[in-house]
Model the fold of this input.
Amino acid sequence: MQVIDGKLTSATIKQEIAAEVDKIKANGGRAPHLAAVLVGNDPASETYVSSKVKSCKEVGFTSTELRFPADMSEEELLQLVDKLNNQEDLDGYIVQLPLPKHIDETKVLMAINPDKDVDGFHPCNLGKMMTGLPTFIPATPAGIMELLTRYGVETSGKQCVVIGRSNIVGTPMSVLMSRKGADSTVTICHSRTKNLKEITLQADILIVALGKPKFVTADMVKPGATIIDVGIHRVPSSETKSGFRLVGDVDYAEVAPKCSFITPVPGGVGPMTIVSLLQNTLKAYRFRTEG
Ligand code: GUN
Done:
């Protein structure tokens, strides 16, 4: 069994990006610039946005954090989006989700200029991904593809089962795994799926993104499978000083001995999502400055 180390891989990729940025600056270019918009004070979102901004600094990007109170109106947010769409020195930006209930998320995502949509959430970019055109791939699926490639996990002709059909992870993941290059045969499972265990037992590659702690147990896993765990949950623990620990959607302790590759939580998929965002920002920068 080999642990897929997302922390190490993300550190390597950050070094690669930093080297690219050094080259750009040495040639007289400006640094790529990412902005992150945070509305409200959801603690998880605050942590994510801080990590994104910190990672920008590590690779030499310019970053802007834009924070607003939870009662910001939809109109005000749409005006900000319009301003960012037209800001010359800004290559890409994200609006951190979830947004407060009174703001229509789809309306906001649709208003983002697709050329600056480094999350890859605009239908225009999702459509390009579906048809294999160059675009911004959503960060979590992009990070998973990068891990599979860098660890030499064979995907061609393999049975891939994705649990979860969200717009951000499950759906784009299933598309990427079935496309030319990855060439897997893909099954998507969700809350209405019957005989889930029967299906997961067929999986050579099992990608789990349903958001339930330790949902996948050893009896659901084919021996020798590759397991990608997208979940991250805080659960109470008497063994840590903080009183909690992080677990994924997979029961790591019992599943790990059965598989050929597995991503841990924390330190698996999580750190890769941020580097994917940095990679997308570099792509946006090149698109804007080099065409
Ligand atoms: N909320 C959870 N994941 C994401 C993400 O990848 N991008 C944004 N904008 N919000 C999120």
User: Anything to note?
Assistant: Residues 269-290 form the longest helix (22 residues).
